[in-house]
Amino acid sequence: MNYIKINLKLNNPLAFWANFSESERFFWFDPQKETFVIGCERLRAIDLEHDKFSDYPYLFHSQTFFDDIKGELWENFGGETIAFKHYFVVNKENSYTLTCDSPREIPEITIPKFKHQLTEKASDFSAWQELFYAIQKNFADGKSRKIVASRELEFTSQTSFELESIIQNLLDNNPNAFIFAYQKGKRIFLGASPEILVQKENDQLLSYALAGTFPKTMENAGQKLLTDPKNLLEHDIVVQKIKRNLLEKAETVTVGTTELMELKNVYHLRTILSAKNSELSLIDWTKQLHPTPALGGEPRHEALEFLRKHENHERGLYAAPLGLIDSKGNGTMIVGIRSALIVDKKLYAYAGCGIIPSSDALEEFRETKVKLKTILEAL
């Protein structure tokens, strides 16, 4: 496929996104590389077994948390690797479009500050308690060591959602996170994820073990988190599982030092694991690692079986892999956390937390409320 490169400077990359409001499109900001990549107008879905990465400048990959989707909310989402007709790339050196179709004039835009007036469908702590106690029974029966439970909160806006305003707020509020938005039809999934599932650069691999959380409102939260037994145990379960999964396929694996990751509202425990492998693709590694115990639980099969049965909402793209692959097959897959799905004037916000036998129902509920701020503060 022949793409034409045209230099283009815009005051805000969101101008490119806004110009394709009726198209399938994705928005991606990588805080490590300080790079924006926006793709608009689907060209085709890629067959990873037969198509070449090198035919396309970038591919956008997404999949649902579970392979099968129940209900209509997430219908036709995920399970695809997509090439687009138009791309806009902004990095530290330059900015340009890549197109295999007729180039478009892209007008500049101004993004006003907008505050949505929302009505929340009442959230039920008793429903959370019921789920929590079912998890504790699962532990008592010896089935699982950790289960990551999640909540879905439904909001209704008085007006249509101003997507550019929301994405800009996510960018402004979360400089250390990967900012993403994916629109398909009238539904948009967006968020600010701090968690890399797997990153590939030639034969070098990287994965985040991100588990263990304290709110920043707590006095000395960061230092307390580094020594908190419950959070350290929860974190170690994730580290050890990712290490084992990497060792199954990689030539070498290195486990970094556990450190604090600071975000706007919380501290997390983070350990970066690196590995070397020249055989498997980024998608192969995504399948190998997803879901880690930071998103599903441990053991994996037992935890997922529990979640399928007991969580009363469909996860869809929430907590599932999504990301960008370049023409060399390199790229980054994050997990879709700190996220929401927008459907017309409805917004479904998602947050989860890792539960182990020593967890407390109210504390975990409060943790999900803090994590939900990432989305709610952008509205």
UniProtKB/TrEMBL annotation:
A Pfam family: Chorismate_bind
Segments forming domain Chorismate-utilising enzyme C-terminal: 126-371
GO molecular function: isochorismate synthase activity
Annotated InterPro entries: ADC_synthase, Chorismate_C, IsoChor_synthase
Coiled coil (UniProt feature): none
Domain of life: Bacteria
Catalyses which reaction(s): chorismate = isochorismate
Entry EC number(s): 5.4.4.2
Protein family: Belongs to the isochorismate synthase family.
PANTHER family xref list: ISOCHORISMATE SYNTHASE ENTC (PTHR42839)
Name of the featured protein: isochorismate synthase
Organism: Lactococcus lactis
Taxonomy of the source species: Bacteria, Bacillati, Bacillota, Bacilli, Lactobacillales
